[in-house]
Amino acid sequence: AVGGKDREVDVKEKRQIEDDDEVLRRKAEEEERERLRKQEEEKKRLEEERRKKEEALKFEPEQKKDVPDPNGPGESGKAVVIDKDKLAPDERKKFDDGWQKNAYNQYASDMISLHRSLPDVRDTECRDLKYRENLPDTSVVVCFHNEAWSVLLRTVHSILDRSPPHLLKEIIMVDDFSDMDHLKAPLEEYVIKLKKVRVVRTKQREGLIRARLLGFSAATAQVVTFLDSHCECTEGWLEPLLDRIAENKSNVVCPVIDVIEDETLKYQYGSAKATSIGGFDWNLQFTWHGIPEYERKRRGNDVAPIRSPTMAGGLFAISREYFEELGTYDPGMDIWGGENLELSFRVWMCGGVLEIIPCSHVGHIFRKRSPYKWRTGVNVVKKNSIRLAEVWMDEYRNYYYERFNNDLGDYGDVSERKALRQRLHCKDFRWYIKNVYPDLFVPGEAIASGEIRSKAKPMCIDSPADHHNYHKPVNMWPCHGQGGNQYWMLSKSGEIRRDDGCLDYSGGNDVIIYPCHGQKGNQEWSYREDNTLYHVNTQKCAEVSVDGKTLTMKQCTGIDRQLWQWKRKSPS
Ligand code: LR7
Ligand code: MN
């Protein structure tokens, strides 16, 4: 019986095993069917994709007919060098007028093909990157107020020539009430031949912020890409941007912005490994910075997207849906300025991510002055900046307001923007600084601030610490008690600074102003118990000359010309 029972168990077990086998087999079959179905689907999708691409290509305008001479002026992004003194008088006049109207060398630009070639500026690692097959498409919005024909149309053609047709749905050119004749009927007639390009016009001068809003309202693609009207897109610029947005629609992405020289239209570029990220100073001006160490570590690889606290403003792509959700732009901002920081703060504080994409490069003509008229009688940049400070910066706005003694003037109504911040449940500005921009110097954290007065003379350390004065020696000047060029702050890490300028000493006699780099080195100072200003790296002390007029660095002796008094010192 024992044996019989065993057999019975055996049979049961066997049946069980057979049942299990059956289940497994069926499952395997099912899986195989599913796999084939998916394969088939993928094949269909790729086929459809390919068909769409071909279709799009078929209908591209014959824009590439005008194939430029490979040795023509400016080809491969080369410089066009013109000796203006050798130009005939009428040509010379054109040359001068071009500069005057545009603040770049229009004469040189006019010599260059609208389809000029550019070098492949991408780092080699970029070529191995794969992007999604089914990327979202984009509308490119280009706003302009008076732009030279060749520069504007080269912007447009560089977009058409270097974007995969199926990803570029349309280009929306927004004319912000230009008065140059070529931007009227001639532009209309020209773009009508470029199937994807449309011109919309503002009814009065609105400024770039409301002009972009008009362009945005006309856009229909999944992603909106904004570009300035004097740009050139390089090969492969678009895919990496769209890919990041496909990854997550709250990624807001900027290309690396290369420099197109204003004099020669030379396309300048370097490795994206050395690219800069965006910041700001307490004057609410946009600033560039190196990639911080913590961000290098986080990314792990040199061509991965770089998180940036702010964007320059002109060149970026954003999901159309997300831009809408996020409250587009503040329509109360005029002409120019502020909107870039406003959007940057908003993206980060309200749950998005702002990135620079190293494998996407777009060139931009950087100008030394603004060629067009601004609103008279109003400081629009200040007004725009106050609007953003009021809404987004909490108590930190006071560091900005101190710059003009809290004289805010009329900045309009920001209640709707404040309501937007409420509605989106955004984080506060302290969170932003701590988590997104920890390298920002916060004046309230200064160990000492105000004038630095010599104890031996009635003289103070004096320098305009702005970028026009970088590399210039710092001098002594009679103390005036007005702050201004005598206002300094000693940071926790030992910098003596104002905004982005730091006292910097690298040997010799002079102390100079240099952009703060946060690496200590030549910028590390210590205000010691004995009231000397000690330079850590060289172990020298700041000393005022016998005549009181110059600041020099000397061996520390503790004589009274080496003793200093800061206006304010925080209790340590
Ligand atoms: O009233 C105006 N209406 C316009 O349509 C004034 C300007 N514009 C257009 C103009 O034709 C141009 O295409 O707006 C664009 C930007 O104006 P620019 O090129 O005269 O100024 P900019 O290059 O110094 O502008 C930078 O900062 C601006 C702040 O409001 C905007 O964010 C710009 O887009 C931004 N440009 C860039 O980010 C490119 C990189 C430069 C840097 C840093
Ligand atoms: Mn610009």
TrEMBL record:
Name of the protein: Polypeptide N-acetylgalactosaminyltransferase
Sorted alphabetically, which keywords does the UniProt record give? Disulfide bond, Glycoprotein, Glycosyltransferase, Golgi apparatus, Lectin, Manganese, Membrane, Metal-binding, Signal-anchor, Transferase, Transmembrane, Transmembrane helix
Which source organism does the UniProt entry give? Answer: Pomacea canaliculata
Q: Where is the composition biased (Basic and acidic residues)?
A: 3-68
| Cofactor(s), by name | Mn(2+)
Its Enzyme Commission number? 2.4.1.-
Sorted alphabetically, the Gene Ontology cellular component annotations on this record are: Golgi membrane
Please provide an example of a Pfam family that matches this protein in its UniProt record.
Ricin_B_lectin
The annotated topology with respect to the bilayer is: Single-pass type II membrane protein
State the pathway, as annotated in the record.
Answer: Protein modification; protein glycosylation
Among SMART domains, the record links this protein to: RICIN (SM00458)
Cell location: Golgi apparatus membrane
Look up keyword Protein biosynthesis and say if it applies. Answer: no
Describe the family membership recorded for this protein in Swiss-Prot or TrEMBL: Belongs to the glycosyltransferase 2 family. GalNAc-T subfamily.
Q: Provide the organism lineage as a comma list.
A: Eukaryota, Metazoa, Spiralia, Lophotrochozoa, Mollusca
